[in-house]
Amino acid sequence: MTAISFEFFPPKTDDQRAQLQRALPQLKARSPEYVSVTFGAGGSTLSYTPEAVRELRESHQLDAAPHLSCVGGSREEIRELLTRYRDMGCRRVVALRGDLPSGMAAPGDFRYANELVSFIRSEFGDSFHIEVACYPESHPQARDAQTDLANFKRKVEAGANGAITQYFFNADAYFRFRDDVAAAGIDIPLTAGVMPISNFAQLRRFSQMCGAEIPRWIDTHMTGFGDDTTAIRQFGADVVASMCRRLIEGGVQGLHLYTLNRAQATLAVLDRL
Ligand code: FAD
After folding, report:
1. pTM value?
2. Binding-site residues, ligand 1, Cβ < 6 A
């Protein structure tokens, strides 16, 4: 069976905490292999992410893995965070560069995620299983796909154990990327990042920023649904589930669902598989 994992963001307000608490029992019932908690670059979630990881581990008995982005951070800060995570019992981290919030100039001690992966390995040996990010449709700042792949390889050579993809809505992009990765001599599992669709306007804005393509046929259907949220959700779940089915048939090693701390859209996809 294909392993599934869920991604959460760390709640910062009481409303957000309540939202995550509502979603957790239903998501936990799907037996995720692990869950991960995102991290805001530039220190904005320096305390929220560890708090959320601790809560998920201690109160919900979930294997919670922190994301750690290095841009804007110092070696000392990152060493301290990793020590806290190790002491909490975390054995898996998702190591990222992150993006500096606009207006924030200080780049910190690390420029790219491969430097963070090397740092973790040199300071913490094999204490952590390290996941990194990868981009079947290329990272938006990459000069071209080949350069992006070469940069991905640096992270693997630095010691990454696995990679989670940016989300995509075109299974062929994943399969082509997997072939390219294999041809480049990289041999780590490529878990597919999956974005269930609930709010399409928000998804469109977000996809423009992170460079994920929304195929025209999906966009035109969604546009036609207007404010009909039921139709949007049903169509979204059908489209994402049928893509996941293709990925599973094609031997994908894992599905990592971006839950946005809500259960409904994620469950709608899983129920269709
Ligand atoms: P890198 O691997 O460093 O790549 C960034 C860019 O630089 C790419 O264009 C790459 O080709 C290029 N590059 C890489 N290495 C080098 C090098 N040595 N020399 C020259 N160029 C290089 N962001 C957050 O802030 N918090 C999160 O919790 C978070 N979680 C994420 C989870 C997943 C699964 C994914 C896919 C993304 C996540 N992101 C998160 C977003 C991520 O931080 C951004 O996409 C960011 O712009 C790149 O991060 P990276 O780790 O892929 O960077």
Report:
1. 0.97
2. 38-41, 67, 69, 94, 96-99, 112-114, 133, 139, 141-142, 147-148, 151, 154-155, 164, 166, 193
- Summarised one tens digit per residue, pLDDT across range 58-75 is 999 999 999 999 988 899
Handedness of CA 159, 95, 209, 241 (dihedral sign): positive
Q: Return the closest-CA partner of residue 26 out of 262, 273, 196.
A: 262
User: CA 102 to CA 205: how far, in whole Å?
Assistant: 17
The question of whether 7 is a catalytic residue gets the answer yes
Sequence ranges of the domains in the chain: 3-272
Q: Is the pLDDT of residue 239 over 90?
A: yes
215-to-184, 220, 224 alpha-carbon distances in Å: 28, 9, 15
Dihedral sign from CA coordinates of 160, 163, 166, 170:
positive
**Measured in angstroms, how far is the CA atom of residue 123 from the centroid of ligand 1?**
21
Torsion angle, CA of 184/188/193/194, rounded to 10 degrees? 100
Beta bridge partners of 172: none
Closest residue CA from atom 43 of ligand 1: 98
CA of 61 to the centre of ligand 1 (A): 29
Nearest residue (by CA) to ligand 1, atom 21, is: 151
Instruction: Name the one residue in this structure whose structure tokens are 């977000």.
Output: 206
Report the CATH number of the 3-272 domain.
3.20.20.220
Cα dihedral: 207, 209, 212, 215 (round 10) = 50
